[in-house]
TrEMBL record:
Lineage of origin: Eukaryota, Metazoa, Spiralia, Lophotrochozoa, Platyhelminthes
GO cellular component terms, A-Z: plasma membrane
GO MF, any single term: Wnt-protein binding
InterPro entries: 6-blade_b-propeller_TolB-like (IPR011042), Cueball_EGF_LRP_Nidogen (IPR050778), LDLR_classB_rpt (IPR000033)
Organism name: Macrostomum lignano
SMART domains, sorted: LY
Protein name: Protein kinase domain-containing protein
Biological process terms in GO annotation: canonical Wnt signaling pathway
Domain of life: Eukaryota
Length: 603
């Protein structure tokens, strides 16, 4: 008999039309015997209808799609107004906390006003006295969706609902290739930290990040590009919550792609769905990492290693058409069939299948034809409860760290931890475990050109941290060059804006005070000049701004006043300044020229 659905789960869906994944078949494997269930035979008896109604009354579905976020409660589907025009690529639900939604460049936190069994979005802010939010003001619909984190191309999202932290993966397109970065922050977005960057040959696959809060570990799949494998080698990485790599399971899959993952935290098993091109069946597989957990607490600074050989991969099921959705909860696997969310009983024992009973858990009744889905989360009304009273999280109760605290033990009873500082801060050498210095580390400013828009990043020279510089009010821009006044902590840049309607191009010099970094702080220094600027430099010692057009070298005050042409050339392309030694350097008429800051004594 079916039990009432308990506890939330997360499963992931790639860009795929709903009608494409209809009429799925589901295969369950036990003792090398495959049991195949055709989806047309599901829900044929009266008791199945009653069980489906019981599931439907308890389940709440949250669907991330191209047109926004949809919520199904008691069979009724509604949307979130503040996310109506946003492609919601990933959704994560914290068992004892809020719901998080990721778009291309932001992570939103939803509070209880959306009708979900989740906590209020401001509970952490009230507890900590901090109410900072990305972008300043509210979301425009009663605070239902509040942007707490902004970043560069968010590809995966997961939450640690014991440590109350959000994890996400970003992808940065550098000349060396796609660089994947794993980041962490608290529920309010106030203590951001970059845990690590993967090598350029290693890419964290989209929608494959999972968190096992019970055993304090991160799990994700990596595609490794090699000369011998055109499609790359798939690896399963298991890390501690502080980012330390513990295990690296290589060649775990030979499929073209891993399209979805889900975790059975109670039994320490990760399930995934792998897909090949064409109409070949999608394979659902699993891997038990329970025997690896003691290594997590063996050392404060573990080194990556391969699991004991041989390791077993569980062949769980086959689906006759790719659905790209998968979730595990309470002995059941869940997947999508057209407009239906199907729950399939695995039976007793993890990784085994004593029955192949499948039932429809929820049905979408108000969806658009051909809507492209990205992600789905199911919540249980009966599951909204706190963790057992006997459980105490060392980081939450003792609060031993100044900023970020991470458990790294393999069991709840054994709660060892590490401390990390938020972006830009270094540990205090006199109190390296718990304290952080108040002075910021050195960092490098870079701009990333993505064709139709750009991102500006601050990258630490001392750690792996990076942080996006938020150019609020400029949703689409291309940053041509950057300069900085380090004394005033103000950046200057030239942006190249495409106005599609007017079919015109404008180039503007702007500046932003990084100490405030709030909406409305961007200032225009120069706009619609006779000649468009090509490059700029800041003399922070004298308070002057230099820029070049196609033929001129121009100087002004930092606010754009008192413009004066220092020199004219047939062609000038770049300018840089050395305020300490009092020199200008620029490329003019095919030469690298040095002059004094007033433009004379050219050499």
């Amino acid at each position: 008999m079916w039990r009432e659905y308990e506890v939330q789960f997360v499963f992931i869906m790639s860009c795929l039309s709903l009608h494409y994944i209809s009429n799925c078949a589901f295969a369950l494997v036990k003792d090398k015997t495959s049991i195949v269930v055709n989806s047309a035979s599901i829900d044929s008896d009266k008791s199945a209808v009653e069980q489906r109604q019981q599931l439907r009354s308890d389940l709440v579905a949250v669907i991330g799609q191209r047109s926004g976020l949809s919520i199904i409660i008691n069979g009724r589907e509604t949307g979130i107004p503040s996310l109506a025009d946003q492609a919601c690529h990933a959704v994560a639900y914290a068992r004892n906390g809020p719901l998080f939604v990721a778009t291309d460049r932001k992570i939103f936190r939803l509070d209880a006003s959306v009708g979900l069994p989740i906590e209020a979005a401001d509970s952490d802010a009230r507890a900590s006295g901090s109410g900072r939010r990305v972008g300043g003001g509210g979301s425009g619909d009663g605070g239902r969706a509040q942007a707490i984190i902004a970043d560069h191309i968010i590809q995966a999202l997961a939450v640690d609902d014991i440590g109350r932290k959000v994890y996400w993966v970003t992808s940065t397109d550098l000349r060396a290739g796609q660089v994947s970065t794993l980041n962490v922050d608290n529920y309010n977005g106030t203590d951001r930290r970059t845990l690590f960057r993967m090598p350029a040959t290693h890419t964290i696959l989209s929608h494959t990040l999972a968190v096992d809060s019970l055993h304090a570990c991160l799990i994700f799949f990596v595609d490794v590009q090699t000369h011998s494998a055109a499609l790359g080698v798939k690896q399963l990485h298991i890390h501690r919550l502080d980012g330390q790599e513990v295990y690296n399971v290589s060649h775990i899959s030979e499929a073209n792609s891993i399209v979805a993952v889900t975790v059975d935290a109670e039994n320490a098993i990760i399930y995934w769905m792998e897909s090949n091109s064409g109409d070949t069946p999608v394979q659902v597989r699993g891997f038990s990492y329970s025997t690896l957990l003691p290594t997590f607490a063996a050392s404060a600074s573990p080194s990556a290693q391969a699991p004991p050989s041989p390791f077993a991969v569980l062949d769980i099921a086959k689906i006759d058409r790719p659905s790209n959705t998968l979730a595990y909860q309470g002995g059941r696997l869940y997947w999508m069939r057209g407009l239906e969310i199907v729950a399939c009983e695995l039976g007793a024992g993890s990784g085994s299948a004593t029955t192949a009973a499948c039932r429809t858990a929820l049905t979408r009744s108000n969806s658009r034809a051909g809507e492209i889905l990205f992600h789905l989360v199911l919540l249980s009304k009966s599951d909204y409860r706190a963790w057992p009273a006997a459980f105490t999280d060392v980081c939450s109760v003792r609060k031993p760290c100044a900023h970020l605290c991470f458990r790294y033990s393999s069991t709840i009873a054994d709660q060892r931890y590490t401390c990390l500082c938020r972006f830009g801060l270094l540990p205090d050498p006199k109190n390296a475990t718990h304290g952080c210095l108040t002075t910021y580390t050195d960092y490098l400013l870079i701009s990333l050109d993505m064709g139709t828009s750009s991102s500006v990043l601050k990258m630490s020279l001392d750690t792996q941290d990076y942080h996006p510089v938020q150019l609020f009010g400029m949703p689409k821009y291309i940053v041509k060059c950057l300069a900085m006044d380090p004394l005033a902590n103000v950046i200057y840049w030239i942006d190249y804006l495409h106005e599609r309607v007017a079919r015109s191009v404008t180039e503007t010099i702007r500046r932003l005070d990084l100490t405030r970094n709030q909406p409305g702080r961007i200032e225009k220094i120069l706009e619609n000049a006779d000649e468009v600027p090509q490059d700029l430099a800041v003399d922070w010692s004298s308070g002057n701004l230099y820029w070049v057009t196609a033929r001129k070298l121009i100087i002004s005050k930092l606010d754009g006043r008192h413009q004066y042409v220092l020199s004219t050339f047939d062609k000038i392309t770049a300018v840089k300044v050395d305020p300490i030694r009092g020199y200008l350097f620029y490329c003019a008429d095919g030469r690298l020229v040095r002059s004094r800051l007033d433009g004379v004594s050219q050499r």
